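Structure, all two chains, one model.
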Amino acid sequence: MLHYIAMIELSHIHKKYRVARREAGLGAAARALFSRQYDTIRALDGLSFSVAAGEMVGYIGPNGAGKSSTIKVMSGVLTPDSGECVILGRTPWKERKQHVQDIGVVFGQRSQLWWDVPVGDSFALLRDMYRVADADYKRVLATLTELLDLGALLRTPARQLSLGQRMRCEIAASLLHSPRILFLDEPTIGLDAVSKIAVRSFVHTLNREQGTTVLLTTHDMQDIEALSQRILLIGNGRILLDSDLAGLKRRYGAQKTLTVTYAGPTPELSQGMALLPDSLTGRAVIAVDTVALTLPAAIAWLCERAEVTDLAVADPPVEQMVAAMYREYEI
Amino acid sequence: MKTYTGMLRIRFAAGMQYRAAALGGLVTQFFWGGFEILLYAALYQNGAPQSITFAQLTSYTWLRQAFLALLFSLFFDADIFASIEQGGLAYELCRPADLYALWFSRTAAGRLSNAVLRCGPILIVAALLPAPYGLMLPPSLAAFAAFVLSLALSWLVGVANCMLVYVICCHTLSPRGVRRIATSVVSFFSGEMIPIPFFPPVMRNVLIYLPFGAGANMPLRVYSGNIAGTEALTGIALQVFWLVALVLLGHLLLGRVLRRVQLQGG
């Protein structure tokens, strides 16, 4: 067995937020002038997990589950109420300045580029801030430029970039100081298909070739499928599931989807089969519960009862598995 | 140190990005100065105040217009307010630098680049205007040296003032109210609208010892010899004192606010 060295170790992290609440309407607004009501939200409620060097971890959970709060704690930006977090031997919020030298962070919904000036100027400022030697900077920038296809973007003001171009620049900006750990908070949010694929393949290369430890939060299940060896599911501020993708598929993927194209009348279905709503006349999409009915048996059943001209078998989309997981954990 | 020179470089680059804005600012500042001087000319025809001569006053006005970005005590960096309000602050806390130092250098660099890019034409035109309407030469080399030193100090005191407003905005989130109140109070008492020599003597004597007196007031009066000798040295010492005090206070308050910062939203 490989010697497991934890690079990131969180234990029993708690963080509460206070949220002002009131009913909608003028009356309630007037009352709130005199007395405010606050609710306490446990954003992180005893969160514990660890990540080894070189791992690529997908961090998923519904909106408001505590994903961003976790990233902020790990980046040293947010101080938790209690609990321990040790990353490369340091507590992020206590030794923030040393800690951030070793990490790169991309907050997908914010920008770190200077709005008015060409991206290259923002990069030069980051080089100065992180004290990157000139030779290293040139080398890293050349690699990033090639992998993320930055080229002309470096000479363009950030305000004139498309979202996909900007995100590629944001990711590059977070890596100029060659951090050992990269946190990506929703890096593909709002991107088109081409940009998503570009970002994914870059993160993959980074992890494989440079050994950078990557932790990414996302709602895009294709990100998870393309990138993560390991999945952490967070809900209500706690880790609910820690599994690899294959394990997840075994657990929630007992269902297979059969797409059958046939001539003649619609075949009747056996037990363990269910017709899915995206079926058309002449093309049935059938969910097969492989616990009740094996796949060969299901195919044989259909071939006996209809003139099958084409047939395809697929795993259920990861999206469905995750939705099933959220339902099971009631988050 | 590299962080701060880098900040200066990008600020200059950003300042040079918008030519029309620079030109517009220049023209505005020039006309504002001109009208103010005409107004004072009318005032002085009905008897001059003892505390400042008309020639000193025109130099005061032109220098203020030329170095407005350095001297105006609350010349903010708008991006910092946006970062507080919208959470871009998260990125700034991911930098291996002290946030106070980062914001301070960013604001200082913004002021310096703005002033350097705009002061030239105003100074040249003002120097070419006939006396007593133009910018006069300083009475001595010593007065000029004291002016440069005092100008640098009031630039930094102004930045330290801005830092306090940023800290308050970390509590209130929206900068609107704080900015308006702070700007009107501070710029009035600092002599940015009406020079401090026009204030009643009692107020003049009090203001001079407060941070207000350590702003635009000092360099603009030192230049023309309105304040000279020991009085000038005391004034500069007071500027140093207020700079240190305001920086320490701001640093302490920002550190406090950051310990309980929440950074809301995804």
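Residues 252 and 321 of chain A are 5 Å apart (CA to CA).
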